[in-house]
Amino acid sequence: KNEVEQSPQNLTAQEGEFITINCSYSVGISALHWLQQHPGGGIVSLFMLSSGKKKHGRLIATINIQEKHSSLHITASHPRDSAVYICAVRFSTGNQFYFGTGTSLTVIP
Amino acid sequence: NAGVTQTPKFRILKIGQSMTLQCTQDMNHNYMYWYRQDPGMGLKLIYYSVGAGITDKGEVPNGYNVSRSTTEDFPLRLELAAPSQTSVYFCASSYRSGPRFKETQYFGPGTRLLVL
């Protein structure tokens, strides 16, 4: 069964804290996508990765293919990072993306 | 570039009514997608298209129809609206050529639909 699990579901942090959001999946994948959904509803792509690690500003995404696990890290978190972060995977056998239910992050000043 | 645009932003429908959700992209992307997002659930694929004239079902196609007569437009049709179709609908597009892991999806702003 194609499953994507995210944890935690909700996360509250103080400004400046280091944040980790996790994504696990059930079978082999060809790609993993991290997305950010703003409070207004818009969705933007943060990272697309198939192996290793990617960094953009204060955001870092890693993936461990053997363990079927990816993490999204935010360093020096800021209130503007408050959003829902969504993990999506394309399984090796298929053509479409399957999405996690998202992690709702609130960063308090 | 406007990116991916969707209309309307919000709509209330009565049970049994029909409507078309519009989606347009100006990035010359070959792939286009329709998703629905229900509270507490992940996005689910309704239909997708790999190019003009070619469409295929996703995970939850029942109650919907699509067409892709041009590269730019990918409308989603609801024929007989039901309360279960109350959701937020997102259109997305991407350009796929070469390695699949290089494909990035660009999302529209969403259409909030309420069926009463």
Short summary:
The complex is a heterodimer of chains A (109) and B (116). Chain A is mostly beta strands. Chain A has strands spanning 4-7, 10-14, 19-25, 29-37, 43-49, 52-56, 59-64, 69-74, 83-91, 97-99, 103-108.
Describe the structure.
The complex is a heterodimer of chains A (109) and B (116). Chain A is mainly beta. Chain A has strands at 4-7, 10-14, 19-25, 29-37, 43-49, 52-56, 59-64, 69-74, 83-91, 97-99, 103-108. In chain A, the strands form 2 sheets. In chain A, strands 2, 4, 5, 9, 10 and 11 form a 6-stranded mixed β-sheet that branches. In chain A, strands 1-3-8-7-6 form a 5-stranded antiparallel β-sheet, with no helix packed on it. In chain A, strand 4 (29-37) and strand 5 (43-49) form a beta hairpin. Chain A is globular, with a radius of gyration of 13 Å. Chain A starts with a strand and ends with a strand. The model of chain A has no long low-confidence stretch (mean pLDDT 92). With 116 residues, chain B is mainly beta. Helix content of chain B is 0%, strand content 47%. Chain B contains no helices and 11 strands. In chain B, strands 2, 4, 5, 6, 9, 10 and 11 form a 7-stranded mixed β-sheet that branches. The radius of gyration of chain B is 14 Å and the shape is globular. At the A-B interface, strand 4, strand 5, strand 9 and strand 10 of A face strand 5, strand 9 and strand 10 of B.
